[in-house]
Write a structure and sequence with these properties.
- The chain has 335 residues and is mainly alpha-helical.
- It folds into 2 domains: 287 residues, ABC transporter involved in vitamin B12 uptake, BtuC; 39 residues.
- The chain has 14 helices and 6 strands.
- The chain has a two-stranded antiparallel sheet. The protein has a two-stranded antiparallel ribbon with strand order 2-3.
- Helix 1 packs antiparallel against helix 7, helix 2 packs across helix 12 and helix 3 packs parallel to helix 5.
- The two termini are 25 Å apart.
- GO terms for molecular function: branched-chain amino acid transmembrane transporter activity.
- Keywords: Cell membrane, Membrane, Transmembrane, Transmembrane helix.
Length: 335
């Protein structure tokens, strides 16, 4: 069974890679490249959140706080103190990991709506700090961020680069970079899911009491996956800040936390590729509904509501179940 799941996840990773590298064949507009890059970076954070929500069964309504911490740490250290982007990203992720471990140990003892309120409070605290520390963060007005650099080589959406002898634009280069980062994030998540840690997380999701009875240290694994999901958010937040070239406290706000958790639920909790689809749908829907002006948010909410009513397990799991039923019915008819 585990071998079949591993093969299924490998196929999903290959399909994702094909889609990512095929997208440039269909778009040439810088705006569309920008949207695709943004989707890839946010989807990476959602993959990490899915480990916490979809596999460990722990809710987080303040995860944008960790996204914002990673973004601001990289922005401040590179733009104000002259750090290179890679050390800033790594040190920021380590700092977020420590914060998540310290915060997660007590709040993950809570369950249900108590846990939701606690994680929500963590997100609010981070957003308030980023808003109030004007001298460091720029306050509500935000702050500019220098381009992402790797050993002195700057990656900017406005530059021109050479890849395998071909001249490519900066927006395409950033999209390919973000796509590769997303693939790595998915690969790491899938390896974690198939490891003993992943099996422990699924047991915690199923029943913490039963998991404890068979020797699983539930507090340890819940804290561990909370830290891992926070690191995912921090890394993607840092990259997002460098790509946008500007960052504001809204990136750590409650609204963005709700968007992240909605992407997980919409795509299908426990489905790595599913949550990426959720991120794509939730990012593209406002663009597709923009022509409806005043009715945009009404239609947006209506679509999400109908999706949750008729596809409660999420987009990808529901589609997979329907396909499996059709195949089973077809096989039965052949017999």
């Amino acid at each position: 069974m585990m071998a079949q799941l591993s093969q299924f996840r490998l196929k999903g990773l290959l399909i994702l890679a094909i889609v990512i590298f095929a997208v440039p064949l269909f778009i040439t507009n810088p705006f569309h490249y920008g949207l695709a890059t943004q989707i890839a970076l946010i989807a990476g954070a959602v993959v990490g959140l899915n480990l916490l929500v979809g596999f460990a069964g722990q809710i987080s309504l303040g995860h944008a706080g960790f996204f914002g911490l990673g973004a601001y740490f990289s922005a401040i250290t590179t733009s104000t103190y002259g750090w290179s982007a890679i050390p800033a990203l790594v040190v920021g992720a380590l700092g977020v990991a420590i914060i998540a471990w310290v915060v997660g140990r007590p709040i993950l003892r809570l369950k249900g709506h108590y846990l939701s309120m606690a994680t929500l409070a963590v997100g609010f605290i981070i957003a308030i700090i980023l808003n109030n520390e004007r001298e460091i963060t720029g306050g509500p007005d935000g702050m500019p961020v220098v381009p992402f650099d790797v050993f002195g080589w700057e990656l900017s959406p406005f530059g021109q680069y050479t890849l395998f002898g071909m001249e490519i634009s900066g927006d395409l280069a950033w999209y390919l970079f973000a796509g590769v980062i997303l693939l790595v994030a998915v690969w790491l998540a899938q390896n974690l899911i198939d490891s003993p840690i992943g099996r422990a997380l699924r047991s915690v999701h199923g029943s913490e009491v039963a998991a404890s009875v068979v020797g699983v240290n539930t507090a340890k694994y819940k804290s561990l996956v909370f830290v891992i999901s926070a690191v995912y958010a921090s890394v993607m937040g840092a990259l997002y800040a460098h790509y946008q070239g500007f960052v504001t406290p809204a990136i750590a706000g409650f609204d963005f936390s709700i968007i992240l958790i909605t992407m997980v639920v919409l795509g299908g909790m426990g489905s790595t590729i599913g949550v990426i689809i959720g991120a794509v749908v939730l990012e593209l829907l406002p663009q597709l509904l923009a022509d409806f002006q005043d009715m945009e948010m009404v239609l947006f909410g209506l679509i999400l509501m109908l999706t949750m009513i008729f596809m409660p397990k999420g987009l990808l799991p529901t589609a997979a179940n329907l396909l499996a039923k059709r195949r089973k019915k077809s096989a039965g008819g052949d017999v």
